Amino acid sequence: MVRSVVGGITAPLGFAASGISAGIKRSRRPDLSLVVSRQRASAAGVLTENRVQAAPVLISRERLKHGSARAVVINSGCANCLTGPAGMQDALAFSRSVARSLGIPPAELLVASTGVIGQRLPMTRVLKHVPALVAALSRANHRKAAEAILTTDQQVKETAIEAALDGTTFRFGGMAKGAGMIAPSMATMLCVITTDLAIAPRRLQWLLRDATQATFNRITVDGDMSTNDTVFALANGASGVSASAGSRAERLAMKMVHSVADTLARWIVKDGEGATRILEVSVRGARSQAEADDCSRRVAFSPLVKTMLAGADPNIGRVAAAVGSSTARFDPQRLEIYLGKVRVVARGIALTAQNSVARKLLLRPEVSLLINLHAGNASSSMLTCDLTEGYVKINARYRT
Fold first, then answer.
1. Where are the domains of the chain?
2. What does pTM read for this prediction?
């Protein structure tokens, strides 16, 4: 049985973490985060598909090819993107400094950054604080590590779960950040997942990619894909349980990594910039998976659907228009749409008599929208949030 436990990113055995302020942010909030495995771990990563990629993304992409790592270091407040060769040198110098303090090769340190694009790291301040970052490593500092990766987030996002197999307990933990620029495709979205299972690098990569596709790649706050999206996973084997290919342990590991990723992904949407409620968009009856995915994505990305949600205005025509603009092929005269369990479109006709009930449903903190195309057997889902004045206010002065 899988159950929740406390401890976040350091709940699995053999992990320690820290989070401090190095003065990267003007607010002096924590902005350097470090997660370390006491022993070498299998490493996997799913990184942004944006063609414009930050220096730490490029560095970690290369280091992940080795399939192992000992640590992950993350800074917030500066994305280190659009900074050219100088930004790459900054990231390399930072990672060398941290690796040297940890006593590990730089190749075993993964790096990530989040924050304002187009600015260089304040290297003098950052390097000065590396010894303190390493000295603060503790299993108790998981929350400080999770706090130090936040930007416009209002909430710390961490989770941990455990299960037992043949009497031996093992755990998965995770932390994430993200509230705006969320439309992952592998927002400024970062995530680190740890486990004390032993999993071969290739299998860990497969598990992580599968979980990411089903969770982080099915959320959106604003439809903008970041230059820095990063999801890392470390598996150090400290529990003594091995998840070999096709084993019971691997099947359970798949369930658990999906659970951790799903929990963190949902928190990202709930914490969306200016968000007051979330919307789960489900599409059924599509002719193919690709068409189902495109249809759910079009609806979830639509500013008009999102503002409809913000105002609790049952203007269901906005949903139908988004559905019709997708690549999904269907007969409009067979289209059905439900808000919760209330049918608001039947056989392609809006049921306006349901408007008062629909409005009440749209006022709930979590709203479900089901679209049935009646064209096939494929289905898809996306999780999004409303688009409010709060989002505009945050992003209109993000740099100031």
1. 3-270, 278-396
2. 0.91
- Assess contact for 199 and 221: CB atoms under 8 A: no
Amino acid found at 150: L
DSSP for 304-329, written as a single string: HHHHHHHTT---THHHHHHHHTSS--
Tokens 């607010």 belong to residue = 27
**Burial zone of 357 (CB within 10 Å; 0-12 exposed, 13-18 middle, 19+ buried):** middle
Min mean pLDDT across 179-193, 296-310, 344-358 is at 179-193
- Whether the CB-CB separation of 391 and 273 falls below 8 Å is answered with yes
Q: What pLDDT is attached to residue 138?
A: 98
State the burial class of residue 365 (Cβ atoms within 10 Å of its Cβ: 0-12, 13-18, 19+).
Answer: exposed
User: Measuring CA to CA, how many Å separate 369 from each of 20, 309, 355?
Assistant: 42, 11, 14
Burial class (CB in 10 A: 0-12, 13-18, 19+), 254: middle
DSSP H or E stretch at residue 116: strand 109-116
Q: The domain 3-270: what is its CATH number? A: 3.60.70.12
Q: How far apart are alpha carbons 384 and 302 in whole angstroms?
A: 10
Inter-axis angle of helices 317-324 and 303-310, nearest 10: 160
- Using CB atoms within 10 A of its CB, is residue 300 exposed (0-12), middle (13-18) or buried (19+)? buried
* CATH class of the region 278-396: alpha beta
Measured CA distances, 359 to 181, 282, 344, 346 (Å) = 28, 19, 11, 18
The answer to whether 314 touches 353, Cβ cutoff 8 Å, is: no
Work out the number of other CB atoms within 10 angstroms of the CB of residue 40. Answer: 14
Of residues 48, 114, 152, 188, which has the active-site annotation?
Answer: 188
How far apart are the C-alpha atoms of 386 and 302, rounded to whole Å? 10
Mean pLDDT across the stretch 315-335?
Answer: 97
List the one residue out of 180, 229, 207, 217 whose CA is nearest residue 79. Answer: 229
> What is d(CA 80, CA 90) in angstroms, rounded to the nearest whole number?
8
Q: Is 263 among the residues known to form the active site?
A: no
